[in-house]
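Problem 3 from the worked examples.
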Amino acid sequence: MFDAVVVGAGPAGGMAARELASAGYRTAILDKKKIIGEPVQCAEGVSEFGLRSNGLQPREEWIAQKVAGAKCVAPNGKWFYITRLPGYALDRPSFDRWIVNDAVDHGATLRTSTRVTAVARHDGGWRVQANGESLDARVVIGADGPSSLTARQAGLVRSLEKIVAYEYRFRREDVPILDPDFFLLFVSRVYQGGYAWVFPKGDSVNVGAGGPIDGHAATVAFCRRFGIDVARRTQTIAGSIPYRYDLSSLAAPGLAIVGDAAGITNPMNGAGIHPGLFSGRIAGECAVAALGTEDPPAMLAYDRILRASPFLDPLLSEMIDRVRTWHDSFINSVTEELHGLDWRAVDAKVSLRAFLRKPWIVLHARDLLRMIRTLELCDRYGW
């Protein structure tokens, strides 16, 4: 009998387990992987705010490189700053293991190569079946990725819409379009609301593409366009990213679904590390409160907190649907007006100048204003 079982040992599960174990509760962490954090299924970028706001101090052992922000690059090569919030390219395996090991240091039990096959209510709590064994717990945290068995077994899933991301890792010298200080996001109608990326990572570079597209084909085409020799790749990474999830609730008495398992990723950019850290931490705090008061329904507070957070603001999904309709000519034209600027530079003077040069932009004023609100939202909680 455990006080809590956490299914999944990524950043979300690790954060939940840290909260529970540090509060003195008997916590088991189950993960199907043999080695925590491997294989990597992530572009590995996170803002400094995303770390510090969740109580994590950047550590040299899991930081590959510090970056100054991110740029958006239009099909014509013009660009503007998406964010100038500093951040990091992580070594995800080391990062994941560091979070989980901290939970273990506080008394949590870690079981790798452990595949969960069933989660069901039992005797006022939950019973988890894994590797032919039953584990009983008063609380279960589902942090088991985009196809979460925990969420499905708990009867919370209505629909899951995912997108595919594909990535190659190269040596730094093999990528000619690198900006050494910024993450580059290449947008185009061809990505249907997704994008291609070039993320510097110390001595290596992550290059990939994702969206409701063929991620592999898009990544190969992107590399060919910019003269990146695919044959020189050192690693191939692929995975699915939650795009639009509909769960009846993110919680039930004694249970919470966190991170990718709950679809808590930013649909504008696919960012999932910061949402995972936040949701895992909040779920852990709610679980500690529920266990301390012996009140399983107290876990429902987690659902209310997450739905009120910027991470699940409906504007993000609404805006990405609009972006999917934009043609390259429109993206190019707007980016020309912002070339080399921060999007925050958009004021009455910049807007008037753009309208005088391109009167047709007035027809898209509503979309552009909503995009500014969306970028403000993303900046508010960090990427």
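Problem 4, a separate protein:
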Amino acid sequence: MKEELFKGLTEEQIAKAKACKNQDDLLAMAKEEGIELTDEQIEEVSGGGCFSSFKCPICGSKDYRKLPIYQVSGCSTYKCNQCGHEWSL
């Protein structure tokens, strides 16, 4: 991973992020640590854009957008452009 993607993380969090083998591992680690990851950080671990990997949990569509909503939990909120379902990661 590019070192500039680790700004704001502790040494322990950096080590955990580097140990992640895939996007699911990174998302689980971030949730556990209370870290909101940028799309760029997720893409770096997943090896291809996060938008090509994520899909709507209801209809399975990859046609969705990130909403400009900040939740107290630090999660990002997404909305499916096909079925309208909203979910947070």
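Solution to problem 4. The longest strand covers residues 64-70. Residues 47-52 have pLDDT under 50 and may be disordered.
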